[in-house]
Amino acid sequence: MKVKCLLFGLILCTNLVVACQDETDAKKTVDKPVWDMTGFARGADVSWLTEMEKSGVVFYDATGVRTDCLELLRNLGMNAIRLRVWVNPSDGWCNASDVLVKAWRAKQLGMRIMIDFHYSDSWADPSQQTMPAVWSNYSMDALKVAVSTHTNAVLTLLKSAGITPEWVQVGNETGNGMLWDKGKASVNMAQYAALNNAGYEAVKAVFPKALVIVHLQEGNNNSLYRWLFDGLKNNGGKWDVIGMSLYPTVSNWQQLTAACVSNMKDMVSRYGSKVMICEVGMPWDEAATAKKCLTELMTQSKALADSACLGVFYWEPEAYGNWKSYSLGAFDASGKPTEALDAFKK
Q1: Using CA atoms, how far apart are residues 99 and 157, in angstroms rounded to an integer?
Q2: In contact, 264 and 235? CB cutoff 8 Å
Q3: Residue 2: inside a domain
Q4: Which of 274, 73, 272, 261 shows the shortest CA–CA distance to 166?
C-alpha cells in the first residue's frame, strides 16, 4: 500500500510538472534524436533538483525555452543520473521517497541510474562521516544490521516501482571509511570493511546485477587509493567498481586530469577493478576551460583498455544563481547550460 501511495504521488507530481510547462515547451520537439543509453555513462548527479524546483528554480535550453531539467540534460547527451540518499534528513530532501520521485522521472526518460548511499542524515564526505542520529548508540553488530536494512529498504522501494539502478555506491567519499568512529578506516579498517560488506551484500540481495561502487575523494591521489583499497582487500572488503571524485581548478586541471587517469590505470592493474568518475566539477564561469577539462577526462577515460572506465558524472551541474552558495555548476546565471556540458555530447 505504501508503494502504491508513493507511485500515485509520483504520477500526480509528474502531471503537475508537465502542466506547468509553457505551451511552447509542449510543442518544442517533434522529431527527437536517438539517445545512447548503453556503454559509457555520461551522467550527472542532480540530487538537488526537486528542492530547486520546489523553491521556484526553472531551467532553459540554449535558445531560452523553458525545459524540464532532466530532459534538457538528456538532450545535451547525458544518459545517466546519480542520486544521493540520506537516512533521516531534517528537511526531507534526499530521503527514500524523494529519491524515488527523481529516479522515477529519470526512468521515464530512459536514463540509467546510480544510487549513492551516504549512510548519514546529511553530507558524508572527507570531513564528516556522521552516523544517522538514530544509529548513534548502536553496537558494531547493530550498525551492520542498520546498514543492511536501510540499503535493502531503499532499493526494494525502487524495485517495487520498476526501477533498476545500474550502479550503487556504498558510502560517499569514504577515503577514511564511513560511520565514524566505528567505521573510521584509519582507526579500524576491519570494521570499515565489515560495514562496507553489509552494504555490498544488501545491494546484491535486491539487485544481483547492480555494480557496487566504493567511492573516494581526490581521484588524483594514488597513495590514498592504494592505502584504502589495500586495507579493504586485506580485510575481505568487497567492491565491483572504484569510484573517484575530481575537482580541478583552471590552473591545475591538466595536472590533476593526468594524475587521475594514471590513478585509474593503476587501480585497474592493481585490483582488477572497473573504475568510474562519480563526481567532477569546475567553476560555472570558467566554462570554456571546463569543457576542455571534461573533454580530455572523457577521452582519456574511454581510451582505457578493455573499457575499464565505466563513465563520468558531473556533480550538480544544474545548480545556478548561487544555489546553496555552490559555484561549480554548469548553468549560467540565466538558467541556461554553459558550453562545459558540450563535452557530454556523443
Answers
A1: 10
A2: no
A3: no
A4: 274
- φ, ψ of residue 88 to 5 degrees: the values are -135, 70
The 10s digit of each residue's pLDDT in 257-273 is 999 999 999 999 999 99
Say which amino acid occupies 144: K
- 24 assigned to some structural domain: no
By residue range, what is the domain housing residue 255? 42-344
Please give the model's pTM, rounded to 2 decimal places.
Answer: 0.92
What is the chain's length? 346
How far apart CA 243 and CA 273 sit, in angstroms, is 10
- By the 10 Å C-beta count (0-12 exposed, 13-18 middle, 19+ buried), 278 is classed as buried
Catalytic residue list: 173, 279
Strand partners, 219: none
Question: Tens of pLDDT along 32-62?
Answer: 455 677 899 999 999 999 999 999 999 999 9
Q: CATH code at 84?
A: 3.20.20.80
- Over the chain, what HEC string results? CHHHHHHHHHHHHHHHHHHHCCHHHHHCCCCCCCCCCCCCEEEEECCCHHHHHHCCCCCECCCCCECCHHHHHHHCCCCEEEEEECCCCCCCCCCHHHHHHHHHHHHHCCCEEEEEECCCCCCCECCECECCHHHCCCCHHHHHHHHHHHHHHHHHHHHHCCCCCCEEEECCCCECECCECCCECCCCHHHHHHHHHHHHHHHHHHCCCCEEEEEECCCCCHHHHHHHHHHHHHCCCCCCEEEEEECCCCCCHHHHHHHHHHHHHHHHHHHCCEEEEEEECCCHHHHHHHHHHHHHHHHHHHCCHHHCEEEEEEECCCCCCCHHHCCCCCECCCCCECHHHHHHCC
Phi and psi (nearest 5°) for 175?
Answer: -65, -20
pLDDT digits (tens, 9 = 90+) for 107-131: 999 999 999 999 999 999 999 999 9
Number of domains the chain is built from: 1
- 169 phi and psi angles, rounded to 5 deg: -85, 135
